């Protein structure tokens, strides 16, 4: 048990590190590349952001800054759709197939696709391909199921190792903490790497090396699926039926399982649309005037905010359990902090205000592991891959649609009020809290 947990942790830390470094590299490269594409004669200061060298910017500089933000937001929509559409199918099938073929094989296939994506990314950056060609990078990532598939199969693996009971919530929360060590170490490193190498190619190569190490490490992962669950022939459409059948189960012992699944997954969708989909928008907002973070500031801020959030989430859930407070109440309270987080973000105009945002942010994530655990506990042991595949399916929809929605709203409202998009995100958290209650 412990050997599998440790090896899986190493795989996911490396995967998280690689993904996050690549995320910052691609998005910050896009910010600079689009400026150079549309305004090649504009010289920027060291922050690489129009108007950030002087708070008293001219009307022309503000116009250029707004146009660059609009174009970057539009590009992020194309990139999200290019990755998200193929990923919808890949994520569902890969996670469900892991119940039959085993977790290890599907993890390997997904990591192999991500490795190919990073090789392409490094190649495109080195030869300075047009930024819109990076949609192909997103497509390759989507066909592999991207990081969402890796996480969903990993959660199924953890469910294989844990007993079905009240402690699964805390077990999944602890594992999310381990997973996010990779994400936030990557976030902390990304800005430093970009600054140290004064560019994006070598950080992209380092990201590629990390995912390659994850690919090698997963070969040593002990399998948890029993031989009786491994089938030599499996129909892909059958896997999709298994996925949907999870949510169509009839009531047992008076419990309305369909309704429970519906409320859980709908709440997760409302939480994930701003949480996952809004990530790029937050990045562009923080890089632009008036916040004016540079690459190092952004990665440091995100790493500190995220890593502290993971530790507090585990303590938050455990304290509520000790006080014998229902998981549903804990999740609803967490969503209320999510509303406050986005409202304050919408009014943020200074770097100091963002640290208030970060403090509230640390309390908003308890709802996600609780809802994952609830759905896992409603599901038989031999269908854990299917249920986490279903969760990943919706997580990917939220990533794709959330990014497109946030990008579209941000692009449309930048000239009016930059922070308006965060008020929309707060609305989604309000719906989630109402559903959970």
From TrEMBL:
GO CC terms, sorted: membrane
UniProt GO MF annotations: transmembrane transporter activity
Major facilitator superfamily (MFS) profile domain location: 4-437
Membrane topology per record: Multi-pass membrane protein
PROSITE patterns tied to this protein: MFS
Keyword Transmembrane helix: yes
Keywords, in A-Z order: Membrane, Transmembrane, Transmembrane helix
Keyword Transmembrane helix: yes
Protein name stated in the entry: Major facilitator superfamily (MFS) profile domain-containing protein
Species of the source: Pinctada imbricata (Atlantic pearl-oyster)
């Amino acid at each position: 048990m412990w050997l599998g947990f440790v090896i899986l942790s190493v795989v996911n830390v490396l995967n998280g590190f690689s993904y996050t470094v690549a995320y910052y590299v691609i998005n910050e490269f896009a910010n600079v590349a689009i400026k150079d594409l549309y305004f090649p004669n504009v010289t920027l200061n060291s922050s690489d952001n129009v108007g950030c060298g002087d708070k008293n910017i001219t009307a022309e500089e503000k116009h250029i800054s707004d146009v660059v933000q609009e174009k970057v937001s539009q590009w992020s929509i194309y990139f999200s759709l290019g990755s998200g559409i193929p990923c919808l199918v890949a994520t569902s099938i890969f996670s469900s197939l892991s119940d039959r073929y085993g977790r290890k094989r599907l993890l390997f296939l997904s990591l192999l696709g991500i490795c190919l994506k990073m090789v392409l990314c490094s190649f495109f950056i080195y030869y300075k391909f047009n930024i819109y060609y990076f949609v192909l990078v997103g497509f390759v990532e989507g066909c592999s199921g991207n990081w969402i598939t890796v996480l969903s199969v990993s959660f199924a693996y953890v469910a294989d190792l844990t007993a079905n009971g009240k402690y699964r919530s805390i077990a999944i929360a602890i594992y999310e903490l381990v997973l996010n060590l990779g994400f936030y170490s990557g976030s902390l490193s990304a800005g430093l790497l970009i600054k140290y190498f004064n560019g994006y190619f070598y950080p992209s190569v380092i990201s590629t090396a990390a995912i390659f190490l994850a690919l090698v490490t997963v070969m040593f992962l002990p399998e948890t699926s029993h031989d009786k669950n491994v089938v030599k022939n499996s129909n892909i459409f059958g896997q999709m039926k298994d996925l949907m059948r999870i949510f169509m189960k009839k009531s047992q012992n008076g419990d309305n399982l369909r309704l429970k699944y519906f409320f859980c997954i709908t709440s997760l969708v409302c939480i994930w649309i701003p949480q996952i989909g809004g990530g790029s928008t937050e990045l562009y907002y923080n890089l632009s005037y008036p916040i004016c973070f540079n690459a190092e500031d952004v990665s440091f801020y995100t790493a500190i905010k995220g890593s502290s959030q993971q530790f507090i989430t585990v303590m938050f859930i455990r304290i509520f359990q000790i006080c014998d407070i229902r998981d549903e109440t804990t999740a609803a309270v967490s969503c209320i902090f999510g509303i406050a987080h986005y409202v304050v973000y919408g009014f943020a105009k200074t770097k100091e205000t963002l640290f208030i945002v970060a403090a509230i942010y640390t309390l908003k994530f308890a709802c996600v592991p609780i809802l994952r655990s609830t759905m896992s506990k409603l599901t038989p042991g031999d269908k854990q891959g299917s249920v986490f595949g279903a969760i990943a399916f919706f997580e990917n929809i939220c990533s794709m649609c959330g990014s497109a929605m946030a990008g579209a709203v941000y692009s449309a409202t930048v000239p009016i009020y930059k922070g308006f998009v965060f008020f929309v995100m707060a609305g989604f958290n309000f719906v989630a809290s109402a559903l959970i209650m």
